[in-house]
Write a structure and sequence with these properties.
The protein is mainly α and 507 residues long. The protein has helices at 2-30, 34-53, 57-71, 76-100, 102-109, 117-129, 132-148, 153-157, 159-176, 180-205, 219-250, 255-290, 294-321, 323-331, 338-369, 375-399, 402-423, 434-460, 462-465, 471-493, 498-506. The chain is 83% helix and 0% strand.
């Protein structure tokens, strides 16, 4: 399982690093003005619906059912074809309807755009980018097929292509004199075609050459719909949380871009760890529970939690302690100025406080989904949604756009508390083992020691971090020093055993 985490995590890390290059270029060329905010809105809308139909709600129900059929020798390929065809029909209908009502859809998410140039730009951009939804959602279903079959590398590598295509689009726009915002909007569906083609080819090579056919409501599809319905609703609650944050941000000039860039930074560790854990843990738990292997399920859950904490806690500490240098060095150039860095860093620090909660949700939710229980996570998400909306709207008159970030962070910790409390009745497979109970506080101690070292190093390197020609080297030294400090503290406290990591890498 650790090998699976490392495979998915490594490719996700590569995608996010290239994504940083993309975001740095976008910040420099678009800045935080109307075109930037309009494009970020247009990019967010199809990705909001993606949470329902891609690696979120739909695959939450589909992957365990497909994995059980694959392990039991049933017609897993036929089940996948039926799911693919039904999902494709829904997606293409949704894309058509969304394009017809796009002005109202944009207003529903960004009411602060009304009456200024951001609105018309966002409507035009989103009509183009929304075509990405059916392509990437169907690609995600195929990725779920590959993950359940143990083919992890290609699905994890596919997101790299989105970033490569967008970077290429910006280079082409600069060379040809095209408008950057419009060029990026058209590049998004092109990236969707490329990603879909890659995972379809990989699925075909794995023996699942899935071709669409006329959708049919078979007993298996009825079962899938029953299991998926609460997950759809739960994903809807999550999207309402994001919607509230976007609505708050849209009423503050530049805030949509500030929150977007802060989100991109904390999404790096969240994606590398959280997605890796979610992709590997869910089918593994489903297989073990089907076989009645409670002890094996406990081991999988505990190792996933240990892996998540070991990488997430130091990342969260770093995002809080060195938020401003990170944002300044990575983004401050071109149209992205010092005021933008300061606002983005504030949001990043708040998101950093919630990073462990975001990742722990990815560890705890498979305990429910592997058992076919999607109802309780939905109820928990409803409670978190109410808390998020109340905080984001209630605090915005006091702290402005940061209310959106605080609402997201606090609601995420509330969600973790509910998931943890609900899992206590699941028996042995949901109980942390002795190794996890011993190592979790040691990981926290090692991360705290690293935070102290980063704080001291940040002061020592303060002048170099703002000096052109020196800032990149200073940031590399700061990050390298943090990694070394954490590695040393983890070895001293016993939080990590390097022999175990080396063995996992060899495997």
């Amino acid at each position: 399982m650790i090998r699976g985490f490392l495979t998915v995590g490594a490719w996700t890390f590569a995608s996010r690093v290239i994504g940083f290059v993309r975001d740095v270029m976008m910040a420099a060329t678009l800045g935080t003005g109307p075109v930037a905010e309009a494009f970020y809105a247009a990019f967010a809308l199809p990705n909001m619906f993606r949470a329902f139909f891609a690696e979120g709600a739909f695959n939450t129900a589909f992957v365990p059912m497909f994995a059980r059929r694959l392990q039991g020798g049933e017609d897993a390929g036929g089940f996948a074809r039926d799911a693919f065809s039904g999902l494709a029909a829904i997606l293409f209908a949704l894309t058509l309807i969304a394009n017809l009502v796009m002005p109202w859809l944009v207003l529903a998410m960004y009411s602060g755009f009304a009456g200024d140039q951001r609105f018309d730009l966002a409507v035009g951009f989103t009509r183009v980018t929304f075509v990405y939804l059916p392509l990437i959602a169907l690609a995600a279903l195929l990725a779920g097929v590959l993950n359940a079959a143990g083919r992890l590398a290609v699905p994890a590598a596919a997101p790299v292509l989105l970033n490569v295509v967008l970077i290429g689009a910006m280079v082409a726009a600069d060379a040809m004199g095209w408008p950057v915002g419009q060029t990026l909007a058209w590049a998004v569906p092109v990236a969707g075609v490329v990603q879909f083609a890659l995972v379809w080819w990989a699925a075909a090579r794995a023996g699942f050459a899935i071709r669409p056919r006329w959708p049919r409501l078979s007993p298996e599809m009825r079962e899938l719909a029953v299991v998926a319905a609460p997950a759809f609703l739960a994903a809807g609650v999550v999207q309402v949380n994001l919607l509230v944050g976007r609505q708050v941000a849209s009423h503050y000039e530049g805030a949509v871009a500030w929150l977007y860039n802060a989100d991109r930074l904390y999404q790096l560790p969240l994606a590398v760890v959280g997605i890796a854990v979610g992709v590997v843990l869910l089918p593994d738990l489903a297989r073990r529970l089907r076989a009645g292997d409670e002890e094996g399920g406990r081991h999988s859950f505990s190792r996933a939690a240990e892996f998540a904490l070991a990488l997430t806690l130091p990342a969260a500490v770093a995002l809080v302690v060195i938020a401003l240098p990170l944002v300044s060095v990575l983004f401050e150039r071109g149209r992205f100025g010092p005021a933008d860095s300061a606002a983005t860093a504030q949001a990043l620090a708040v998101y950093g406080l919630g990073l462990p909660a975001f990742v722990l949700q990815k560890v705890l939710q498979p305990l429910y989904f592997a058992r076919g229980d999607t109802r309780r996570p939905f109820r928990f998400a409803l409670v978190a949604m109410v808390a998020n909306a109340g905080l984001a709207v209630g605090l915005s008159p006091l702290i402005g756009f940061l209310a959106a970030a605080w609402g997201t962070t606090i609601a995420s910790w509330l969600m973790v508390a509910q998931l943890w409390a609900g899992s206590r009745a699941m028996g042995l497979s949901a109980a942390p083992d002795a190794r996890l109970r011993a190592r979790a506080p040691r990981i926290a101690l090692a991360a705290a020691a690293m935070g102290g070292a980063l704080w001291a190093a940040q002061g020592w390197l303060a002048e170099s971090l703002v000096t052109p020609g020196l800032r990149y080297g200073a940031m590399a030294a700061l990050i390298g020093g943090g990694i070394a400090a954490y590695a040393l503290a983890a070895q001293i406290t016993g939080a990590l055993r390097w022999s175990e990591l080396r063995a996992a890498l060899r495997r």
